[in-house]
Amino acid sequence: MNNGILKISITLGFIFFLLGCAHQTEYESMVQQGLNSDREINDIFLGYEFGMTREEFLQSSWEMNQQEIITGGVKIVYLLEELKSTARLEFYPEFENGVIAEMPVTASYISWAPWNDEYNAENLLNDIKLHYEDVFETSFQSVSLPEIEENVWVSIEGNREIRMYKKSVNTVQINFIDLSKIYQNS
Fold first, then answer.
1. Element (H, E) at 17
2. Rounded to 10 degrees, what is the CA torsion of 144, 147, 149, 153?
3. What is the pLDDT of residues 16-69, one digit of tens each?
4. Which of 6, 51, 102, 131 has its CA 20 to 30 Å from the CA of residue 96?
5. Tens digit of pLDDT for each residue in 65-122?
6. Do the bridges between strand 150-157 and strand 172-178 make them parallel or antiparallel, or are there none, so unpaired?
7. DSSP code for 44
8. What does the alpha-carbon distance between residue 123 and residue 175 come to, in Å, rounded to a whole number?
9. Within a 13 Å sphere around the CA of 138, how many CA atoms are in the beta-carbon half?
10. pLDDT over threshold 90, residue 15
11. Domain coordinates in residue numbering, the chain
């Protein structure tokens, strides 16, 4: 009789294991819905777009540098002044097959200091989230991403994912990701 209970327990455990493996996370479900929508959204910010070649990116950056919209070259700096205090955004795209596939951005309030808690990463994250919800007419969901090991704010529309999370006490990481490039072989 104990042998029969053991077999049933093992069988049920195996079934639950298989069901757990087949279950998509909330994030995976969001990615799948975005990619299945067949919407192509290539806008990143400042006129940068997914699919821009390195040459187009450099030309656009050079022109904005001449207009003093941005500064830098290897790491580009943009001052976002639409928040409660000016934030410094630093970025440079990642290219795949010669075109922009991802734009990683670090952001921090210029006014941040260890004694100035009002301008810490948590507050900046909330301010940027609200700003991007308005600019991109989207909403963000808090989801768990195992590779980051914490909840992050994510917006997925078509192929474009915007992901934001606290990187350090004063820095927020923002990633604009072209999901069609990442999942093209899936």
1. helix 2-22
2. -40
3. 444 444 567 888 888 888 888 989 999 999 999 999 999 999 999 999 999 999
4. 131
5. 999 999 997 899 999 999 999 999 999 999 999 999 999 999 999 999 999 999 999 9
6. unpaired
7. -
8. 18
9. 20
10. no
11. 26-182
